[in-house]
Amino acid sequence: MSLSEGWQFRWGDSPVSADGSPAWAQGKDPAGWQAINFPSNPPGRDGKRHAWFKTTLPSGGSWRDPVLYIYSVNLLLEAYLEGQRHYRFGEFGADGQGRFAGWPWHMIELPPDFAGQPMYFRVYSDYTDIGLWGEIKIMERAELFGYVLRHSAIDLGISMICLLLALLTGVFTTIQPGKRHQLAPIALFSLASGSMILAETQASQLLIDAPLMWNYLAAGGYFLLPVALGLLVEQWYRDTRLRLIRRIWQLHLAYWVIALGAASLGWVSLAITYPIFDGLLLISMVLMAVIILPRLKTLDVEQKAILATHAVFSLLLIADMAVAHGLLPWARVPISAGALVFSFVIVAISLFEYKRTQQEFKALNLRLEQEVAQRTEELQTLIQRLEVFSYTDPLTGLYNRRHFTDILEKASAQAIRHQSPLTLVMIDIDHFKRINDQYGHEAGDCALVNIASQLKQHFREADVICRLGGEEFAILLYHTEAGGVQQRTDELLDILSKTLHVHQGTTMGPITISCGIASYPQHVDDPQALLGLADQALYSAKLAGRARSHVYA
C-alpha cells in the first residue's frame, strides 16, 4: 500500500509540551500545516534545517504484522504515533540538530489497527535535500524482506562478479608485471564499481546493519571511478592529452583522500561530499569528451567500444545524480547494468589483445560463471525461504491468509474444471477475548497453538488448514461434500469438549469452537463464493449458542 498522497508539512521544529514531547505530534497548533504532494523538499526552504511532515495512515486490508517502509531519509528522522515517539534514526541534540548517520532504508513497525491514525515525522537535514525520499509503503514485515531481496538480487550478483573480477585481475597484475599498467585500471574499476553497487544495494543492510559504514564504502567506490577510467584512457595518448587526462584523475584521487579523510575525522559531513563530487564529475566528463572526441577516428575498435560502454555508464550515473538531486522523478536507476557491461567489455578486449593469456582468462570466465550460478542459487534459495515464510503464520505454523487467498483461487478453478466437490469450513474459537482477558495474551497464544495442533491431527494431510487472523481459521477440503465434513467437525467438537488446556500450570478448561460449512456445487455455482457462505453458516452457529457446526442453508 503506497503512501503517495495526503501529506502535509511545516517548516521549523515543534515546541515542547510540559511532558517533554513535541506539541505538533499531539495535534496542537493545527493551523500551520500546508499540503504537499510528497514529503520531500517543501517549497520555501531558504536554508531551513528542520521540517515536519504528517499523514493519516490509510484504511483497507487485513494486517497481521504491518510495517512502514521508507526507501531513505535526508537526513535524521523521528516518527510519532499517538503523540509518542515511535521510531528514531540518528541522534538529535538538544538544539534539534545532529550528525549524518547514513542513508539506509527504514522499517517502522505499525500496530495492526493503524488505520485512520495521524503519523508525524520530524526531520533534520543540513544536506541539499530534506525529507523522506524514494518509496513509502505499508507492507507486511515478511513481504518487505522478500521485496528488498528481489530488488537486490541482480545487484548483489553483479557486485560479486565485479569484485571477483577485481580479485582475479589483481592476481594477474602481480604475476605479470609487464602488463600491470594495462590490468591495474581494470582491477581498480571493478573494485570501485563492485564496492559501490554492493554498498548501495538494500540487502547489504540485512547483512550488516551499519548504514554509515556502507555509505563510506559506497562513497569510496564512487569517488574512485574517474580515477580508474583516467588510468585506462591515458595509455592511449602520448601527447599533451596524456598530461591533461593525468591531471584529471589525479585531482579525483586527491578528492577521494581529502573528502573521505575529512569526513572520517568529523570535519565535514560525508553527505555533503556527494554533491561536490557530482559537480566535479560532470566537469571531468565534459573535459574528457573535449579531449577525446576530436581524435575519436584515430582510436581502434576496442578503444571505441570502451568509450561507448563508458558513455552508457556515465549516462546512468548522470541520471542517478538527477534523481538524487530531485531533477528527475524518483526511480531505481540500473547503474549496476552499466558497470557489468563496462566490466565485461574490458575483459573481452583484454582477452582479445593478450592471446598468450587466453587459457588464464578462460579459467577466469569459468570461475565467474560458477560463482554467478552459486550466488544466484543461494539468492534464489533465500528468496524461496522468505516466500515460504510469507505464506506461513509464525505462531501456529499453519498457512496464513495470503496463502488461503491464493489456494482458494486455484482450488476453485480446479473444482470447476473437473466438476469435483469442494468444501470450505470457517472456524472461530468461542469467547476467545474472554480467554485473553482472564488468563492473558500468552495463554491466548497457547490456546491458538493447541487448536491449530488439533486441526492438523484431525483433518487429512491433503486438506488445507489456514489461520486467517486472530482466532479465525479456515479449512479447504477437496473432493468432499458438506455432509461428510459436518460429521468430521462434529467429531472434532466432541474431542475439544473433553480436552483441557494448561498454560504455565493454569488449567483453562475445554475451549470450544464454532464451525460454518459451505460446499460447491451443493450450495453455490462459483467456488469463490464459498467464503461468504461459510461465514454466514458460522454466524448462524454462533447465534444458535456456539460449540457447534452449521451447514449453509
Structural description of this entry:
By secondary structure, the protein is an alpha+beta fold. It has three domains: 7-144, Jelly Rolls (Sandwich); 150-359; 401-551, 2-Layer Sandwich (Alpha-Beta Plaits), CATH 3.30.70.270. The protein contains 14 helices and 16 strands. The protein has helices spanning 141-175, 180-200, 204-207, 211-233, 240-264, 270-292, 301-324, 335-353, 358-390, 401-418, 432-439, 441-458, 482-497, 530-543, and strands spanning 7-11, 34-36, 50-56, 66-74, 76-81, 84-89, 106-109, 118-124, 131-140, 422-429, 464-469, 472-478, 501-503, 506-509, 513-520, 549-551. The strands form four sheets. It has a six-stranded antiparallel beta sheet, with no helix packed on it. β15 (513-520), α14 (530-543) and β16 (549-551) form a beta-alpha-beta unit. α1 runs antiparallel to α9 (358-390) and α2 (180-200) runs antiparallel to α4 (211-233). The longest helix has 35 residues, at 141-175. 35% of the residues are buried. Residues 420-553 form the GGDEF domain. Keywords: Coiled coil, Membrane, Transmembrane, Transmembrane helix. GO terms for molecular function: diguanylate cyclase activity.
Mean pLDDT: 88
- The proportion of strand residues reads 15-25%
Following the backbone from N to C, one meets helices and strands in this order, namely EEEEEEEEEHHHHHHHHHHEHHEEHEEEHE
Report the span from N to C terminus: 37 Å
**Number of separate domains:** 3
Helix content: 40-55%
Count of DSSP H/I helices: 14
Low-confidence stretches: none
The major sheet is characterized as:
6 strands, antiparallel
Record the strand order, biggest sheet: 2-1-3-8-5-6
Derived from helix and strand composition plus strand pairing, the structural class reads alpha+beta
Give the CA-based shape.
globular
Radius of gyration over all CA atoms, rounded: 31 Å
How many DSSP-defined strands?
Answer: 16
Domain GGDEF: 420-553
Transmembrane segments: 156-175, 187-208, 214-233, 253-270, 276-293, 305-327, 333-352
Catalytic activity: 2 GTP = 3',3'-c-di-GMP + 2 diphosphate
Pfam family, one: GGDEF
